[in-house]
Amino acid sequence: MTEFPKGFLWGGATAANQLEGGYQEGGKGLSIADALPGGPERFKIVNQPDFNWTLDEKQYTYPNHNGIDHYHRFKEDIALFAEMGFKCYRFSIAWSRIFPKGDETEPNQAGLAFYDALIAECLKYNIEPVITISHYEMPLYLAQHYGGWKNKALIKFYERFADVVLTRYHKQVKYWMTFNEINSAFHFPVMGQGLVPANGANEMQNIYQAWHNQFVASALAVKMGHALDEKLQIGCMILYATAYSYDANPVNQLATLQHNQDFNFFCGDVQVRGEYPAYTNRLMNHFGFEFNDLDWTDEELALLKQNPVDYIGFSYYMSSTINETAADAELASGNLIGGVKNPFLKASEWGWQIDPIGLRIALNELYNRYEKPLFIVENGLGAIDQINDQHEVNDDYRIDYLREHIEAMRSAIADGVDVMGYTPWGCIDLVSASTGQMSKRYGFIYVDLDDAGHGTLNRYKKRSFDWYQKVIASNGATL
User: Could you name the active-site residues (predicted)?
Assistant: First the structure.
């Protein structure tokens, strides 16, 4: 049996906007996540032409405002992670907690003090912090008054933010990622770029301009981090969904190849290789423009080339199946990135197609393309958990899901892939990014909170808690 590498980073992952709460405490400003209504219609609401980031608390609920109150309970939560044996903990720093509007010149000291304490608590238990600098939570003011990431002014604002946190924490934190699931904007630019129809989300040129600006900002962060300490590991982070052609029809084979280029590889090609790929204009021409229509400079392209990322972090939840030849093919209803239903796969309660072998394929595809270390920083099963009167949650379905994906990861390591670590998503229950629900649970720890925001917020260990504890203690030998 292939062993996991010594020092493998077992842990878990969260995002500030989905668990912290305290949305106006300690001088924090509003983030775009604070303006996203709760509920499964979340994306439908924000994609309406009249959505302009205005909060309407009479009509909607905003579960991100309170999250699971990690802001006040982080010591309790970190202690539970330590009990599981976490070697690392991936979390994000809320930009609007450090720069409430985003365009200030001086950081909010109360916000920094919170992360001082959070990082210290991790290190107290020898848990390695893995920090995402920007995880779907840019300051709301930057979306409202600057139009989101399509505005090049955000490069300077992000650079200032990254400089503050890298300078303050580089001695305590070795592992960083610049943007969460940067390529997700291809399908939903609201989260990563702050773009909705009202400020340009329906124009693909705006999305590519926003990406360019983020690529430049990311390269600046890499440059700053390496200047502080050349041993810092600063990665990109992409949403990866292994893609299959539905059949051997060359039309579908070509469509799958282009889907991979357009979605799975484009952002990684720029951030890892340091330059725009050969297919860039083919991709942009499809949407009616070309690379030279974007606002870019030779200096920016040189910056990208000189400051590629050190590793590739990625999320993996599902695969997608491409069928361009059948107009009546059944769609995979829950897949965030589209595609048709794969008859060989089961699906989660939210319709996400479960595909452990697809993770092994993803790891091989990414490593063969880039030959840089890979870090699976999100993977997990969103499910409706039932808790009994003894506060027990029997989530064998989650254990089965994770076991199969860890086995696939082990097989990829046997294939020769360099895998750094594994941090399952939502290691403690939190607010779902896609649906704004608490009922879509991922964690090893149950949080007593419902979709309406009612509950004690008490934490309870699920069956998967003890299982994952054994996995980590055995370095993946006991599954």
Answer: 378
By residue count, the chain amounts to: 479
Cβ-contact 416, 129 below 8 angstroms: no
**Catalytically annotated residues:** 378
What amino acid occupies position 246? Answer: Y
Distance in angstroms (rounded) separating the CA atoms of residues 247 and 240: 21
Instruction: Express each pLDDT in 86-108 by its tens digit.
Output: 999 999 999 999 999 999 999 99
- Do 31 and 109 contact (CB within 8 A), yes or no? no
**Main-chain dihedrals φ then ψ at residue 199, nearest 5 degrees:** -125, 30
Domain assignments of the chain as residue spans, ordered by start: 9-473
Pick the CATH number of 9-473 from 3.30.565.10, 3.40.190.10, 3.20.20.80, 3.40.1190.20: 3.20.20.80
Name the nearest CA neighbour of 88 among 98, 96, 103, 78.
Answer: 78
Other beta carbons less than 10 A from residue 248's beta carbon: 7
pTM for this prediction: 0.97
Min mean pLDDT across 79-88, 275-284, 349-358, 446-455 is at 349-358
Q: pLDDT by residue (tens digit) across 331-374?
A: 876 666 778 989 999 988 888 889 999 999 999 999 999 999 99
- DSSP letter at 11? E
Cα angle 435, 392, 40 (rounded to 5 degrees) comes to 10
Q: CA geometry: angle at 10 spanning 9 and 12, to 5°?
A: 115
Among all chains, which residue has been given the structure tokens 């990208």? Answer: 304
Residue pair 91/43 in contact (Cβ under 8 Å)? The answer is no
Question: For the chain, percent helix, then strand, then coil, each to nearest 5?
Answer: 40, 15, 45
pLDDT at 479 over 90: yes
